[in-house]
Amino acid sequence: MTLARADRVSRRYGSTLALDQVDLDVRAGELVGLLGPNGAGKSTLINLLVGLRRPTSGRVELFGGDPRDPASRRRLGVTPQETGLPATLRVGEVVDFVSAHFPDPIPRDELLDRFGLGELARRQTGGLSGGQKRRLAVALAFVGRPRMVVLDEPTTGLDVEARHALWEAIRAFHADGGTVLLSSHYLEEVEALAQRVVVIGHGRVLADNSVDAIRSVVGVRRVSLTVDALPSLPGVVRTERVDGRTHLFAPDADQLVRDLVTSGIEFRDLEVRPTSLEEAFLAITTADSADTAAEPAPA
Ligand SMILES: Nc1ncnc2c1ncn2[C@@H]1O[C@H](COP(=O)(O)OP(=O)(O)OP(=O)(O)O)[C@@H](O)[C@H]1O
Hints:
InterPro entries: AAA+_ATPase, ABC_transporter-like_ATP-bd, ABC_transporter-like_CS, ABC_transporter_ATP-binding, P-loop_NTPase. This protein is of the alpha/beta class. The protein has two domains: 2-215, P-loop containing nucleotide triphosphate hydrolases (Rossmann fold), CATH 3.40.50.300; 219-294, 2-Layer Sandwich (Alpha-Beta Plaits). It is built from nine helices and 13 strands. It has helices at 42-49, 91-99, 108-114, 130-142, 160-175, 187-193, 211-218, 253-262, 277-294; strands at 2-13, 16-27, 31-35, 57-62, 76-79, 148-152, 179-184, 196-201, 204-210, 221-227, 238-242, 245-250, 267-274. Strands 5-6-7-3-8-9 form a six-stranded mixed β-sheet, sandwiched between helices. It is globular and about 70 Å long. Adenosine-5'-triphosphate binds next to β2 and α1.
């Protein structure tokens, strides 16, 4: 069953085409990660799906209805990228205020404990740290026992411990049957949480698949070596030099190793390994930029 759907959705802001004919289905029980560089269109897509904005063309659906209709949003929890909390209210009061909108909210203490905020119940939100405010904003998405939560960069600004605590809360919600759509700049976050990854670049869906499939679609391997100078080698999509090591990214690592050997150059400490999602993601978006540069889209 599809809970959120974008069907050939485009969204323009003046002359900027933020989304270009995007299709996306989020099905019940899925945990979907939305990845893309700055300005790719992730927040725009999220805002359309949760009814905060209207598409320029195409259709969006939430629980089978129009996301702008409050009835469609009843089983939805959202944390937008930026949230404002009333500075003089205490944490517990903010939770009570939001809870009052739902028929069967999670009890205040249970919610605060789940998100590691139990000790802060009596603190005014204006005095919280940036990370504490962010955790509270994310916790509020869960208060009404939603069927689906949409989290736009939920862990931005959190330290490692707080991020992991939030991952646990998201995992627990998903394990109980909840559906999650989250965007993140932390690629290891999507790798750790999501079963399915949707990569967005320049307003288009570049890839929509499992984490493993995305790696194999990209098919890039990393060949690392210590070398003084390298000739230009066919098939290398990206080269990095880090701490005296050279990392070459190529779809056919076996051929690259053969080319290295036949080139006669001196190298040592050769290592070949699959790419991380981050590297796969960089390869997809870099290839997309190259395409865009080579073939400008028609006006
Ligand atoms: N309200 C707006 N007015 C004008 N342009 C906008 C507006 N919102 C977004 N854009 C533009 O639309 C494009 C997509 O932006 P969007 O915020 O959806 O990207 P994003 O992938 O969420 O980026 P980030 O990771 O930086 O949050 C960008 O070029 C952005 O400048």
